[in-house]
């Protein structure tokens, strides 16, 4: 669904992402992990059209650069890490902004818009908040409302930057479940995660970034092997099997000088 | 309240205030005189040459002040933004001051509004030279710098003015007024205000998306450079023309969007048309008030809008402190 070849992002002469190549298949949930400053957010920003980049990206069978920003926004939904809402709009109106790229000026919501918004609000458990002012929500509630906004696009590609940060365990698992469901519906989902346990538990594939480069791309077991995690994060891991599933747990910071 | 009802109510209010403005003044002149019917020649003249341009300018200037305030607050996502913040009002005022200071406005009456509009356009050119396509913060900083420069130059003109009468004229002009404007002023300013208003209205959709921050808006396919250009150029044309014929009228652009925002569910796109109508209503009523409370002394409109505006604004501050919502 999305193929990136040699994507590089530079800001003021500094390379934030260097020569990243990967693909996202329809129906796959892929985690993008790596230490702070590895370039994960920059890569997502570039793909979303927020930052300029070098290299080639294809969306489906279309060249990324051949699409107008608005067409691109209908095919690729982007959930930024920054959770910002400037005006006291109702949560239902916030989620409805997901349909923004589809709507013509002054045109009312179509039936498709309403269905997509209702489904996204149900999936993210924010229906009870529909009439609340977005500026009065707690951090976790706002995060869920903004995630619902991105889901309402119903785009073939979803890029989510740390959607579970600041959520309680219940809602972390719930959001991961929703992302799985998005993939099951046929979307290609790329999600930035800091929680390696969640990445290993829910994702089909893991991209591991370090210092601007993709250093591993494979199943959670391969990409997040104890050796790879020790080399990139400087962290020792515990791993195991439970009910036939592989799990891992970051356990101890390694002495980086040693 | 449904949006269509709000628009209809405000529209009816503007129409009523417009008629009220036509009917207000020291001389007796019936409404029919507007169409040259059933009145003495003097009444027809007063109606068509004095009151009609005043009422038209009240609606147009109030409208573009409210509209540009709403657009700039949406663009900058700053509830304190108003047309003056990008330096256009100050620069237009300085252009007018030059016309008065040099005595040019005595020789060619239209030199004053023309120089004022030149000032507004110079401010935009300078703004783009300074801020270009950089961040919104740079835009605000550049606007404040231009405002300060224009204010300093205006003070310099006052300081060096050749005689007290020139200084007083400059000072009075800057207070803002719609008195004694002619249809020439309307013809000069209206086209710029119309084009400016259209540019500002075109920002609506993008302002909605910007409500989630610039990064989210870019991800939603919004062209930020285009929105900034529309809002800045639209304000320069509309408010530059407004200041050119009326002087500086404060608080309308700041307060009208604030008053109306809760009535449109805080939606920055829907706020634009209602802010035009709200600004038109507020300024026309204030201009009627000016003539009713002090028919003989020349009370300035800009003084009255500030006097009405400040307490209103304090009430808004108290409300937002209580509800936490702008």
How are the elements arranged and paired?
The complex is a heterodimer of chains A (258) and B (326).
Chain A (H helix, E strand, L loop, with lengths): L1 E10 L2 E11 L4 E5 L6 H9 L5 E6 L2 E2 L5 H7 E4 L11 H6 L14 H13 L15 H14 L4 E5 L7 H16 L3 E5 L3 H7 L2 E6 L2 E6 L1 H4 L2 H8 L1 E8 L2 E9 L5
Helix pairs in contact in A: 4-5
Chain B lengths: L2 H21 L17 H36 L11 H14 L2 H4 L3 H21 L4 H24 L4 H12 L7 H19 L2 H7 L3 H6 L4 H23 L5 H9 L7 H26 L7 H23 L3
Helix pairs in contact in B: 1-2, 1-13, 2-8, 2-11, 2-12, 2-13, 3-5, 3-6, 3-7, 3-11, 5-6, 5-11, 8-11, 9-13, 12-13, 12-14
Structural summary, described in words:
The complex is a heterodimer of chains A (258) and B (326). Chain A has 258 residues and is an alpha/beta fold. Chain A has 9 helices and 12 strands. In chain A, the strands form 3 sheets. A 6-stranded mixed beta sheet of chain A has the order 6-7-8-3-9-10, with helices on both faces. In chain A, strand 4 and strand 5 form a beta hairpin. The longest helix of chain A is centred in the last third of the chain and has 16 residues. Chain A starts with a strand and ends in a 5-residue tail after the last strand. By secondary structure, chain B is mainly alpha-helical. Chain B contains 14 helices and no strands. Chain B is globular. The chains are: A alpha/beta (258), B mainly alpha (326). Chains A and B meet through helix 2 of A and helix 9 and helix 10 of B.
